Amino acid sequence: MNASSPPAAVELRGITKRFPGVVANRDIDITVRKGTVHALCGENGAGKSTLMKILYGMQKPDEGTITVDGAQVSFHNPADAIACGIGMVHQHFMLADNLTVLENVVLGAEKLYGIGAKARKKINEISDAYGLNVRPDALVEQLGVADRQRVEILKVLYRGARTLILDEPTAVLVPQEVDALFDNLRELKSEGLTVIFISHKLGEVLHVADEITVIRRGTTVGNADPKTTTTKQLAELMVGSELPSPETRESTVTDVPMLTVKGLRVAETGVTPVPKESPKDAYGHEGAQVGRLLLDDVDFTIHKGEVLGIAGVEGNGQTELIEVLMGMTTPDAGVITLDGADITKAPVRRRREGGIGYIPEDRHRHGLLLESPLWENRVLGHVTERPNSKGGLIDIKAARADTERIVREYDVRTPGIDVTAASLSGGNQQKLIVGREMSHHPKLLIAAHPTRGVDVGAQAQIWDQIREARRDGLAVLLISADLDELIGLSDTLRVMFRGRLVADADPATITPEELGSAMTGAATGHLEAPTDPEHAKDAAR
Ligand SMILES: Nc1ncnc2c1ncn2[C@@H]1O[C@H](COP(=O)(O)OP(=O)(O)OP(=O)(O)O)[C@@H](O)[C@H]1O
């Protein structure tokens, strides 16, 4: 350690963790210095989450030591880690929607400051100290994604964390929210707290991290200095080889409609009916008589060979749109036509058989059977289709062989096809789903965050596969929180806000910042290209 560098907040030495058939962590050494933001980068399955679960007491290492503030520790569960000042904010937020911020924060930590005035004072103090801007009495269900994340951070700080682990914290945020989060992280740092974060977004890593550790195939391959490293170099360090360069934009859009949606309307049922005396619904729209409209007069057409991208902050109707298109719910009004056939009331299976592929937004709830082996997951949603089925029965041999093919072609890192989906790393679970859905050559792909949690190499590969299928006439509805993905893949872009499609943009000229600002409701109609299109393209890259 050089004389001027701060002391270690956390030291991991010789950490090894084995699972059946896999060494997830192999002799890992990391020093995280006090008052720094330390990024962990690496391919899908490299071992990042496993290492953080070990540091947070969720898993026990087979070998190695953990030192916190100079003292060696041994964690049996997260409570032990919290007691030593280690806190973790998971990618899937763990808040109770129907409780207030204060109730969520004190839940399970009542012994610290009670549940009344003292707790409220502490919450306000923490919120002020780190610029978190959290309101103790707000109901969590009324908060947006970024606010919820701040509540999660506050929850961890309230429990006395001095080192915070954030697992892909920016995956769900728009650019402006990412900037605000990074401001919060700087505040934490300036107060002497330490942040460790996992991210696949290499530009952001270089922007915010003080130190970067790269993990490849379970072991540390080196540190990168964010001041002198480029995203390309960082990616190459992760992958161990050069990445393919992105292909140039080409249009394959035809004038043959594949999916047409007209006047789609979905009202929230059974929840907070608008009082008679109030002429407005929960969104503030005039004249509403029912619960708020989750989808309000949504119209669009996707043609063969076209990717329609829908941008929007999560919770603005995207989930409801997908559910209606897949047949999980019936709309209150509107017509859905797939390749000339009215499917408005068709059951899910008919839509699937009619050629809809589906990459769900929540892969754990809708994409996989976590406790089932990979080959059974390959059959999921495609039970009646080839090669899974023959003569009305599941053809186990063919399904297994095809699972092996998907694992190979989509580079799903796994010791075999008989392990459970739960044992795959997040990114590898995603690759399996994408492989399964693309294997049936859909006419329409409904893709929600198709590359969420996948590394830059796998992301480029999935984009290529979607582009190639588009060339052959695939129509895609793309919903994504990744604005580079939306801009890079879409032929047409629309912005969804409070259940309506409020704006459209040309993906060739729009910048992520402009798109992000329209997503917060700041701009409607056609988003004009800036006067200097070259500048816009540079910004979008
Ligand atoms: N509970 C488990 N049982 C068996 N194998 C596991 C388990 N958890 C993780 N693994 C394996 O350990 C390896 C490392 O996984 P880990 O989730 O740590 O990767 P990661 O770097 O976080 O990946 P990603 O970027 O995809 O989230 C993978 O091969 C994974 O399949």
Structural class determined from secondary elements: alpha/beta
* Physical arrangement of strands within the biggest beta sheet: 16-19-20-13-21-22-23
User: What is the count of distinct domains?
Assistant: 4
CATH superfamily of the largest domain: P-loop containing nucleotide triphosphate hydrolases
Give a description of the structure.
Keywords: ATP-binding, Nucleotide-binding, Repeat, Transport. Helix content is 33%, strand content 24%. With 541 residues, the protein is an alpha/beta fold. It has four domains: 7-85 and 162-243, P-loop containing nucleotide triphosphate hydrolases (Rossmann fold); 93-161, no CATH class; 257-355 and 442-540, Rossmann fold; 363-440, no CATH class. A hairpin with a 2-residue loop joins strand 4 (63-68) and strand 5. The chain binds adenosine-5'-triphosphate. Adenosine-5'-triphosphate binds at residues 19, 22, 24, 42, 44-50, 413, 423-428, 453.
List keywords for this structure.
single chain, 541 residues, Rossmann fold, alpha/beta, six-stranded mixed sheet, 19 helices, disordered C terminus
